[in-house]
């Protein structure tokens, strides 16, 4: 299928999804849309992008169920996997086994707006606390619904920025 046709089909899917859900660039069928849009990408890159969509959906469900610490945990994973998709596509190699978002930003060579870069640094540090909490009740009280929602919103913004990288749009 010529890349122009893939691009038109992808644009149609995004437009239809936005009309249905009211959310721009959010696909209900992420695995299908990633496959159609990215037929010229490495299989591993597509897999990373599928995992990003899966993790974001999980974060959204955790927000609905009141598991706010896990919202932040899944947001970190989604950003990590999105950055790994870029690294994978750019290098044709499996990305390093790291959770360090700052390292992955450096390897991806994506230029983020300062606000997003600050957020990525912030979630990079916060995620460590979610992996190794000293006291669960203190951790849970530190991240109420409003804060978890802010993290999710900024994560969606960061992922939209990452997915705009030209290396993911061949």
Please write out the topology:
Layout: H1 3-21, H2 30-37, H3 43-65, H4 68-91, H5 101-108, H6 114-131, H7 136-142, H8 145-163
Helix pairs in contact: 2-3, 3-4, 3-8, 4-5, 4-6, 4-8, 6-8
Task: Write up this protein.
The structure is a single chain. The protein has 170 residues and is mostly helical. It has one domain (41-168): Up-down Bundle (Four Helix Bundle (Hemerythrin (Met), subunit A)), CATH 1.20.120. It contains 8 helices and no strands. The chain is elongated, with a radius of gyration of 16 Å. The two termini are 13 Å apart. The model is unreliable at 1-8 (pLDDT under 50).
Could you write a compact summary of the structure shown?
It contains eight helices and no strands. By secondary structure, it is mainly alpha-helical.
Strand portion, in percent? under 5%
How many β-strand runs? 0
Mean pLDDT comes to: 84
Note the total helix count.
8
- The gyration radius over C-alpha positions equals 16 Å
Gap from first CA to last CA: 13 Å
Q: Quick one: CATH class?
A: Mainly Alpha
Tell me the domain tally.
1
The biggest beta sheet is recorded as: none
Question: Any descriptors?
Answer:
mainly alpha, disordered N terminus, single chain
